[in-house]
Structure formats: C-alpha cells, structure tokens
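Saturday, quiet lab. Running sequence design on the structure tokens for the scaffold JK sent over.
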C-alpha cells in the first residue's frame, strides 16, 4: 500500500511547485492582513484599498493554494509513471534544517516585497494619473476637462468608486471590462454618458457638499458677445434662487428644493442621454404623491426604468465640462485672450471651432490656415490662432469624438433643454390636469438684476427686469431650439 511507504522514500526531486504555492498563499494572506489593517486604520479609507484587500489578495491566496495542490498532484503522477512509490503525505515539509531555513527566508523576502508592492499599488491605483493617464487615449477628454474643472483636486475615485463591498466589486468588474476593452481597442467613441451605475450622489457629492447647507441666492454674470462686426458685448446678471434643502438652516425652497431630504422626485427618460423626460413623480414631505405626465404619454413606467433625481441630474458636468464654442470664445474675449477689436472675430472663431475634424493636429492646422486667411494683415493673427487652438485642445477631442455635442449639460436651459426637460409647461398632474410643473415664469428660478453692456450693467434692479433678448423683451423659455452652443439659429 502506497500509504505505508515512509516519506523519506519519496522520489528524488523536491516538490518546489508546492513550496512556491505555499509561499504565494502565505504572502497573499499576509498582504490581506496588511491591507485590511490599512483599510481599518487609515485616516480616510480609499476605495481601491478594498479591491486590493478583498479581491486581489484572495485571488493570489487561492492561486497559491491551487499551486500547492497542483504540485502534489504532479509529483504523485510522476512517481506513478516512473513506477516509484507514491508519496504518502499531501504536502511534505522540507526535509532538513537547511531546506527549512531556505524556505523561511524565501517567504520572508517575498512577504516584504508583497508589503511594499501592495502599499505602492494602493497609492498608484488611487492616484488621478492612474485613472486619467494610464489608458491615455480613451480617458484624455475626461482627464483634460477634469484638470480644468473646479474639482481638479478631487480624486477620480471619490466620485467614481464606492467604499462599500458592493461598490468595489462592481468597480473591479467594470475595471477589468474596461481594461480588456482598451487592450482590444474595442471601446466606444465617445465614452457614453450618463454613467448608469455611478455611485449615488449621497455617497459622493454629499461627502463634501453638505446638502442641508443653506446656499441662498447666487449672483452670476453671463458675459457674451454677439456675432456681429463689432462683437457687441451683451451680459446678463442673474440672481439665481438656489435656495436650501433644509429648513433648519434657512428657507427650504428654490432650486435645491429638488434635493430636500423630505422630497422625492422620480422620473423616467425616453432616451439614453436622459434628454426627454415624459413622466415625473413627486412624493412630498407629507407623503402626498403627484404624478406628472407629458402630453401623449400613457405608458406605465417599469420600476427598473425609474430614476430618483439627485445632484447629478442637474450638475452632470461637475468635473468634465466641454465648453461649447460660443461659451469658450465669449470667455476668451472677456478675458482678453482674444482681441475684441478684430472685426467679426466672435463669429469667425466659433465657425472654425465648430467644423468636424478627424484628428487634433489636423484641426489645429486648419484653424491656423482659416484664421490666418481672414486676418492675414493683422499683427494679432498669431495671438488669435494660438488662443483658438488653445480652446480647441482643452475642449475638443476628435480622436474620441468627444466635445460639447456629445455631452449634454443639464444645469441651465440655453444650449440644452436642461431644466426645460420637466419645466416646459406641458407636464400635467394626472389627478389635476390644470396643475403643471411650473414653467415660463422666469422669476421662479432667477431674477434679472441687470443686462446689456457697460453702464447698463451697473443699473441693478433688485426687483428684476424682464429679459431683453437682443432688442425685444422675451418670455419664451425654450432657448435650446435656436441656441446649440455653436452659432445661434435665427
Ligand atoms: C466631482 C466628481 C467627479 C470627479 C472628481 C471625476 N468625475 Fe468623472 N464623472 C462625474 C460625473 C458626475 C459624470 C457624469 C455622470 C452622468 O451624467 O451620469 C462623470 C463622467 C465620467 C466619464 C463618462 C463620460 C462622461 O464624460 O460622461 C468618464 C470616463 C469619467 N467621468 C472619468 C473620470 C476620470 C478619469 C476622472 C479623474 C481624472 C474623473 N472622472 C473625475 C464626476 C466626477
Ligand atoms: C472631495 C470633495 C468633493 C466632492 C466629492 C465633490 N466636490 Fe464639488 N467642490 C469641491 C471643491 C473643493 C470645490 C471648489 C470650491 C471652490 O472653489 O469654491 C467644489 C465646487 C463645486 C461646485 C461649484 C462649481 C463652480 O462652478 O464654482 C459645484 C456646483 C459642485 N462642486 C458640485 C459637486 C457635485 C455635483 C459633486 C458630485 C458629483 C461634487 N461637487 C463632489 C469638493 C468636492
Ligand atoms: C434642480 C437642479 C439641481 C439639483 C438637483 C442640485 N443642484 Fe446644485 N445648483 C443648481 C443650480 C442651478 C445652481 C446655481 C449655480 C449654477 O447655475 O451653476 C446650483 C448651485 C450649487 C452649488 C453652489 C455653487 C457655487 O458656485 O457656489 C453647489 C455646491 C451645489 N449646487 C451642489 C449641489 C449638490 C451637492 C446637490 C445634490 C445634493 C445639488 N447641488 C443638487 C441646480 C441643482
Ligand atoms: C426631472 C424633472 C425636473 C427637472 C429636470 C427639474 N425640475 Fe424643477 N421641479 C420639478 C418638479 C416636479 C417640481 C415641483 C412641482 C410641484 O409639485 O409644485 C419642481 C419645482 C421647482 C422649483 C420650485 C421649488 C419650490 O420652491 O417650490 C424650482 C425653483 C425649480 N423646480 C427649478 C429647477 C431648475 C433651475 C432646474 C434645472 C437646473 C430644474 N428645476 C429641473 C421637476 C424637475
Ligand atoms: C426652471 C428654472 C428656470 C426658469 C423657469 C427659467 N430659467 Fe433661465 N436659467 C435657469 C438656470 C438654472 C440658469 C443658470 C444656468 C447656468 O448656471 O449655466 C439660467 C440661465 C439663464 C440665462 C443666462 C444664460 C446664459 O448662458 O447667458 C438667461 C438669459 C435666462 N436664464 C433666461 C431665462 C428666461 C428669459 C426665462 C423665462 C422665459 C427663464 N430663463 C426661465 C433656470 C431657469
Ligand atoms: C428663435 C431663435 C432664438 C431663441 C428661441 C432664443 N434665441 Fe437667443 N439669440 C438668437 C439669435 C439669432 C441671437 C444673436 C446671435 C449672436 O449675435 O450671437 C441670440 C443671442 C442671444 C444672446 C447673446 C449672444 C450669445 O450667443 O450668447 C443670449 C445671451 C441669448 N440669445 C439668450 C437666449 C435665451 C436665454 C433664450 C431663451 C430664454 C434665447 N436666447 C432664445 C436666437 C434665439
């Protein structure tokens, strides 16, 4: 019986495979404990920590154990084939003192390397450059826009990866999927938006922006220049009624009423980009439910299609905003990067930026040629070309087909429907068709403190003006049908 054969008579050749497996398993276990401790005691736990500790380390642990078993199996098979007695013990210890010492030293060195390695990979994987630069081409648009955003110092993982067990496994799965996509050069251009499984805003935005905090009114000036020969300045100064979400800190109302803890707003969208919203349901503080429907919408939404409104339904570009040519050129003129004295410069700059190009170098070259042909006699030509090229590089990514056209912005209502998706005056309450989601009353969201140019802008009207669109008073709220971010349609 093979079982009775003493260990010392096992065939020549040590079972190094099993030893290596044991070392690997031991180190993985050690790494797990080490990472677990960091995760537990670290000042601010990092989401990738969880992935390393609970996903990667166990994978290596099982790999090590598997290697041990495989080593034994292989050794036994060899012995059997050679007609030698099959070793009895599943896993024989190294025989003599020297072998044991060697084995322990190897484990110790390996464990030390693992500790350093896992600590390093923890740092690397949490870093912004890992997310933004490691897979350069696909992430270039998001990374560039991010660096120019108010959140440039907030790490990608703060908004994109969760802390809980479910979130990091999900992120891990996504990560593997994305890595395969990048290696096979098989990923969508542009990367689609919205992200279906983004962490809920409760766990991201609200970690820093306490939603109960009272915001009050926000004074914002939107500086524009018309597409005429003199690039006539035109500004709107608004007092935005941002309001608050908790009556303990001030009146709970205004725009942030939607995220008031006691209100729940749910909706469904008819398109992938959430630009058409035919059904909205409000549950207020008292539990009263009001269902609003767009005309002709009679279907019953499936629970899976319903989304609860949160910060991202308005602030969907907090970190990756691709400025439209109209806005980017207005900004450049207002800061002086583009000289307003150049005739038709607003219009011409917007037109060259709006063309479709296949690569960035091609675009930059064309921008240069077209603008130089228009302003060949001006000493300002070089500066202009550089300013427009700079706008292009920061906001347009032809290789990924990523620019403002691909990424709707939902915060206002000028270039995209935004608020108008629900506040278009057509969404009526099912039980009371006269009750609509409020629309058209401009002052429900903001008042016009001042508008125009120069001295006109200094005449503030605290009660609010009516909006004067170019020359005529204006009360149509559907701006996006003419304003697309490029040249406005008549
Ligand atoms: C302040 C929070 C925040 C930070 C920081 C952040 N993102 Fe985003 N990211 C978002 C939001 C919000 C969206 C859009 C989600 C939606 O509409 O569903 C988004 C979308 C994306 C998309 C999908 C394409 C798109 O533009 O909608 C990618 C890819 C992406 N982010 C990558 C990154 C990378 C890489 C970093 C770090 C360099 C990063 N993000 C940092 C909040 C953030
Ligand atoms: C890790 C902290 C952190 C997280 C998470 C975070 N923010 Fe911010 N946010 C900031 C900081 C810091 C600023 C810049 C404040 C400043 O400059 O006044 C900022 C600025 C803003 C602003 C003002 C931007 C402007 O144009 O002035 C908005 C709006 C905003 N965040 C929304 C969001 C939303 C929506 C999310 C979730 C997707 C989010 N933030 C997640 C820290 C954070
Ligand atoms: C109904 C749309 C909507 C929702 C939902 C919403 N916001 Fe806002 N928020 C706005 C608007 C509009 C402003 C005014 C600033 C602007 O227009 O850019 C604003 C302003 C802010 C500001 C102040 C920016 C500054 O420059 O001072 C912060 C911070 C902010 N929101 C964070 C949040 C957070 C966090 C949430 C989720 C809890 C949230 N918002 C939900 C529309 C919304
Ligand atoms: C998903 C649909 C939806 C979107 C998008 C939306 N709202 Fe609303 N909003 C509502 C509903 C529903 C109400 C409450 C109607 C009611 O029952 O009185 C409301 C109410 C309001 C109110 C009145 C709050 C109060 O004090 O009573 C303001 C102000 C407002 N919205 C501003 C905005 C702004 C600004 C935006 C865009 C940044 C926006 N909304 C986008 C659905 C939406
Ligand atoms: C449901 C809320 C809401 C209503 C109603 C509303 N607005 Fe606005 N409006 C906004 C928000 C929010 C912004 C700020 C957008 C941003 O921060 O980019 C804005 C911005 C603007 C701007 C500045 C845009 C720019 O880029 O120059 C103008 C002009 C404007 N609104 C005009 C109007 C007029 C005119 C009406 C009435 C016919 C109206 N709005 C009704 C929410 C509203
Ligand atoms: C019927 C089409 C149409 C509608 C609707 C419309 N606009 Fe305009 N708008 C124009 C045209 C055309 C110009 C002149 C473009 C220029 O000279 O740059 C213009 C100019 C402007 C300007 C100054 C220049 C610029 O490009 O920013 C602002 C600001 C503006 N409109 C805001 C609005 C707002 C806000 C709304 C909705 C409340 C709106 N418009 C609705 C056609 C329209």
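Result came back. Writing it out in full:
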């Amino acid at each position: 019986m093979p079982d009775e054969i003493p260990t010392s008579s096992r065939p020549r050749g040590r079972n190094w495979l099993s030893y290596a497996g044991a070392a690997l398993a031991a180190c993985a276990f050690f790494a797990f404990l080490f990472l677990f401790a960091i995760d537990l005691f670290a000042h601010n736990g990092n989401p990738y920590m969880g992935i390393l500790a609970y996903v990667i380390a166990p994978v290596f642990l099982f790999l090590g154990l598997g290697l041990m078993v495989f080593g034994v199996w292989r050794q036994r098979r060899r012995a059997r084939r050679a007609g030698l007695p099959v070793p009895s013990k599943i896993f024989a210890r190294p025989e003599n003192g020297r072998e044991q010492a060697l084995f322990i030293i190897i484990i110790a060195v390996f464990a030390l390397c693992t500790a350093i390695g896992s600590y390093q990979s923890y740092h690397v994987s949490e870093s912004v450059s890992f997310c933004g630069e490691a897979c350069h081409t696909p992430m270039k648009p998001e990374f560039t826009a991010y660096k120019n955003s108010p959140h440039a110092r907030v790490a990608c993982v703060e908004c994109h990866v969760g802390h809980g067990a479910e979130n990091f496994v999900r992120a891990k799965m996504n990560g593997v999927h994305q890595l395969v996509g990048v290696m096979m050069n098989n990923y969508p251009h542009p990367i689609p938006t919205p992200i279906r499984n983004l962490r809920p805003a409760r766990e991201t935005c609200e970690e820093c922006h306490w939603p109960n905090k009272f915001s009050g009114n926000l004074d914002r000036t939107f500086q524009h220049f018309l597409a005429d020969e003199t690039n006539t300045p035109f500004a709107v100064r608004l007092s935005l009624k941002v309001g608050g979400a908790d009556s303990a800190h001030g009146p709970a109302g205004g725009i942030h009423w939607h995220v008031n803890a006691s209100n729940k707003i749910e909706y469904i969208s008819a398109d992938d980009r959430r630009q058409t919203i035919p059904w909205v349901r409000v549950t207020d503080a008292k539990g009263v439910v009001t269902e609003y429907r767009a005309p002709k919408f009679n279907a019953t939404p499936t629970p899976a299609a319903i989304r609860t409104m949160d910060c991202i339904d308005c602030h969907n570009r907090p970190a990756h905003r691709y400025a439209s040519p109209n806005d980017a050129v207005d900004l450049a003129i207002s800061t002086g990067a583009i000289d307003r004295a150049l005739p038709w410069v607003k219009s011409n700059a917007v037109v060259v930026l709006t063309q479709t190009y296949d690569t960035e170098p091609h675009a930059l070259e064309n921008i240069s040629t077209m603008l130089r042909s228009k302003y060949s006699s001006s000493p300002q030509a070089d500066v202009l070309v550089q300013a427009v090229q700079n706008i292009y590089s920061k906001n347009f990514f032809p290789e990924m087909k990523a620019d403002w056209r691909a990424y709707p912005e939902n915060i206002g209502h000028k270039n995209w429907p935004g608020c108008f998706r629900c506040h278009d005056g057509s969404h009526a309450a099912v039980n009371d068709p006269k009750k609509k989601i409020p629309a058209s009353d401009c002052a429900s969201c903001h008042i016009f403190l001042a508008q125009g140019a120069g001295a006109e802008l200094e005449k503030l009207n605290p009660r609010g003006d009516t909006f004067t669109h170019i020359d005529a008073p204006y009360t149509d709220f559907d701006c996006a049908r003419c304003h697309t971010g490029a040249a406005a349609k008549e």
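Notes for JK: Residues 325-400 form one domain. Residues 224, 226-228, 234, 236, 326, 414, 469-470, 476-477, 479, 481-483, 488-490 surround heme C (ligand 6) (CB under 6 Å). Ask whether to fix the surface positions before the next round.
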